[in-house]
From TrEMBL:
Top-level lineage group: Bacteria
Bias (Basic and acidic residues) ranges: 30-42
Source organism phylogeny: Bacteria, Pseudomonadati, Bacteroidota, Flavobacteriia, Flavobacteriales
Protein's recorded name: Lipoprotein
Disordered: annotated span: 21-46
Species of provenance: Chryseobacterium caseinilyticum
Amino acid sequence: MRKVFALLTIFAVLACDKKQDRSPTASTDNLKRSNERTETKQESFSTEVALKKTNDEILQALKVNFYDVFAKYIHPQKGIRFSMYAFVNKTEDKHFSRADFEKYYPTKTIFTWGSRDGSGEIYKATIDQYMKNWVFKKDFTKSEYAYNKFLGNGNSLNNLKEIYPSTNFTENYISGSEKSSGMDWNALRFVFEEFEGKYYLVAVINDEWTI
């Protein structure tokens, strides 16, 4: 009799465990992505503090290739321009509205982004390729940060302040190596404009030593 009672107890425990195993797991749709854009109004902070926070959020989104998150920072009306080098060329640099960026970043559509320094070769790539291989060519989450100041200074004409005179910008700078006499430095700049109490990207500018 005792043996029968013991067996019944074991079966009851196992049945309970199986019932618990069948409980539904949490849906990823209900989990907030850690680097989604925060919706805090920028006037809650000083401009400098707000842009440092926004700058870091954008870098995190780029690092993990969350281009849907990155798109939330694009200016809703003016869109965004990508410049391969410090010199901003309004006629050649690639420009997207937010809607077009969101439409094309998952696709294999090839775009012309500009021309390579030195060779003059036309640079063509998908949005995904350009973001990974050019914009975020180095891990800028580990870079030196500056607000409205240039840390990287090369021999390429830097006309950011002329093209975007009434804006604020951030720079993420990685110094060059001793092996290359410091000439292999890289900088990634974000240019912001305010819209309805928040700062949005109007330009992403890469910079490096040019020939």
